[in-house]
Design goal:
The protein is 28% helix and 28% strand. By secondary structure, it is of the alpha/beta class.
Length: 337
């Protein structure tokens, strides 16, 4: 029996027929590297790396370059996959460049993240210009916190520790900055989120997907302007829709299913986890059952008549639209053409 093939970044179990459709060589090795994602049509897209991974490479490279110049550096991602990035590093100064992969609209692609390091008795991470700040109201004035996620900060500290171990140094003072961060941030969501002065340093996995996971400005326009469209209700659905239906435009609609109006000649799909979709179609779906949640009912009794009735009501609202319900691991639970 063939071993299961799991995407190490999103945990999706890749069907063997997807592998068979892949035209690229060494597709299994590419998937295992985390830097590539395989779609259902056999196409392979390159993931990028997060600003957290890029910052980690810059900081580690700066420390190592205190002893020797270098042009590549490897760092560990938060999910335990090591990646190698090109850098320019010499005499305690390092530049690492953000790689957006095959994401056509990643505004941070090509952005330089810089780190300067000097010997110290302990680890000191100094946040310089170009990295966003979040203002919070204190007792007497505003308090600013840097826009660095906990996972990204830990990744950076781990990279600094690796650099110190490699050089034999006891500690280092490292200043991280993004020279064009404030300019680039104007084209991100940061201004609307109240983040001032630069970009955010993020990354729960260390990798960035080769597509946009943010809500669009007008979901109705996105849907209407698409010949082939898959509408999903949440982030989990969106993550898997990209892989399952690469030839469709994926639109995240959230719980606003009432706003969907497909054209009669449109190739349309509604895809997502069962709970929100079935509850929307039939608010009383759990009434008269022993279950507290739809997720529990799907798990324990996937053929429950209330599930069938809710599916029937959903299809009645969208008779010409394919309905695909997913489990949390991306497997298809129900598929109604």
């Amino acid at each position: 029996m063939q071993d299961r093939i799991i995407d190490p970044v999103n945990g999706f179990e890749i069907p063997t027929e997807w592998i068979e459709r892949a035209e690229e060589s060494q597709v299994l090795a590419k998937i295992q590297s985390g830097l590539y994602v395989l779609l259902s049509n056999g196409k392979v897209l390159q993931r990028g790396v997060t600003t957290g991974t890029t910052a980690s490479a810059a900081c580690k490279g700066a420390i190592i370059s205190l002893c020797d110049p270098l042009d590549i550096v490897d760092v560990m991602t938060p999910i335990g996959i090591r990646v190698t990035l090109p850098v320019i590093a010499k005499k305690g100064f390092c530049i690492a460049i953000k790689d957006g992969g095959d994401h056509e609209f990643d505004v941070t692609h090509g952005l330089e993240l810089m780190a300067c390091a000097e010997n110290s008795r302990e680890i000191e991470l100094i946040i310089g210009k170009g990295i966003g700040r979040i203002a919070k109201l204190g007792l007497s004035n505003q308090i600013y916190h840097h826009a660095i996620s906990q996972s990204a900060r830990q990744q950076i500290i781990n990279a600094i520790e690796e650099g110190l171990a490699q050089t034999g140094m006891q500690g280092a003072r490292v200043e991280l900055s993004v020279p064009k961060g404030e300019i680039v941030a104007k084209n991100t969501l940061n201004p609307r989120l109240g983040i001032e002065g630069g970009i955010s340093i993020l990354g729960s996995t260390g990798f960035s997907e080769p597509w946009n996971d943010h809500l669009g400005e007008s979901r109705e326009t996105e849907i209407n302007d698409s010949t082939s469209v898959v509408v999903t209700t949440g982030r989990t659905g969106l993550k898997y829709c990209r892989m399952l239906f690469p030839d469709h435009r994926a639109v995240l609609i959230g719980n606003q299913l009432d706003r969907i109006k497909f054209r009669n000649n449109q190739d349309s799909i509604i895809c997502g986890l069962p709970a929100l979709i079935l509850k929307w179609a039939w608010p009383q779906v759990l009434d008269g059952t022993e279950y507290i949640t739809i997720a529990e009912m799907v798990s324990k009794d996937p053929e429950h008549p209330h599930i069938s009735e809710a599916l029937k009501r959903t299809k009645a609202k969208f008779p010409h639209t394919r309905l695909v319900l997913l489990l949390k691991d991306g497997k298809i639970f129900k598929d109604l053409p």
